[in-house]
Write a structure and sequence with these properties.
By secondary structure, the protein is of the alpha/beta class. The chain contains 6 helices and 11 strands. The protein has a 7-stranded mixed beta sheet with strand order 1-2-3-5-7-8-10, with no helix packed on it. Helix 3 runs antiparallel to helix 5 (about 195-245). It starts with a helix and ends with a helix.
């Protein structure tokens, strides 16, 4: 028997099928891990650079390559960033979501990328407020300029935890505010002036509680006065009724008269 025949006879068909299946599975996993999302363009630069700019996207693309280091999603129509949107992108260093229609970002949206992320651009969107823990454990330099921010306590608490981009920090302005005099002013300058929106918020809450308690007390007082007046009227009518009844002495005299007749 020749060497080639011995080699062919030593290969088990079932083993070959198993190896083929494992190879196919590994290839599929690799393709899933490195496949470029539809409508995006991907290039390899010590990691994947995923270019999805100006694609009319309305949401974050699913199944992004796990080795993505740069993700460009600017100039789309994305309105919301859900929790865990980038959870598998542990190597992500740059994320651009500028010039979208963002109105909300959930707490945990950047979970999984907090350690590696260095640049986050949320400028030129429709954001007016953010939950305090939106950027928890995030060390990235963040751009928040050109958004219609509402300057109040929660925004103040959020900004305390961030590293704002120094080039655009003065473009983070109060579009609306708890106090009208700060509308149009840079948020950082307002906070540096010593204003504390949280104190103002507490005072406003205290005033609201005082007004509510005053209204409740007034209602209780009015009810008590009404109750007393109503009872007084009932008592007066009852007394008038008793006075209208024949007296006991008069009834006694009438009884004696009747008795004498008989």
């Amino acid at each position: 028997m020749g060497a080639s025949q011995r080699c062919r006879s030593s290969i088990n068909p079932s083993s070959f099928s198993s190896l083929f299946f494992v190879g196919t599975l590994l290839f599929s996993l690799m393709m899933t891990a490195y496949a470029c999302p539809k409508l995006c363009h991907c290039t390899e630069r010590n990691g994947m650079v995923v270019q999805c700019t100006s694609r009319n996207l309305e949401s974050i693309p699913p199944n992004l390559p796990k080795d993505t280091v740069v993700l460009l999603l600017s100039s789309n129509r994305i309105r919301h960033v859900p929790k865990g949107a980038f959870a598998d992108l542990h190597r992500l260093r740059e994320l651009d979501l500028s010039h979208n229609a963002l109105e909300s970002v959930e707490v945990g949206a950047f979970q999984g990328v907090s350690e590696a992320l260095r640049t986050l651009d949320l400028s030129n969107n429709h954001l007016s407020s953010l939950p305090r823990d939106t950027f928890a454990k995030l060390h990235a330099r963040i751009r928040l300029s050109q958004n219609p921010w509402h300057c109040e306590c929660s925004l103040q608490e959020t900004l305390r935890e961030l590293r704002l981009d120094p080039e655009t920090v003065n473009e983070v302005s109060c579009f609306t505010s708890e106090q009208e005099e700060y509308v149009g002013q840079p948020v950082i300058q307002v906070l540096d002036s010593g204003i504390n929106f949280c104190n103002f918020h507490h005072k406003t809450t205290d005033v609201a509680m005082f007004v509510a308690m005053f209204c409740w007390f007034s209602m209780v007082t009015a009810y008590i006065i009404y109750y007393i007046k109503h009872n007084q009227e009932d008592a007066r009518r009852h007394m008038e009724y008793l006075k209208s009844l024949p007296s006991t002495s008069h009834m006694s005299k009438d009884y004696d008269t009747v008795s004498s007749v008989f």
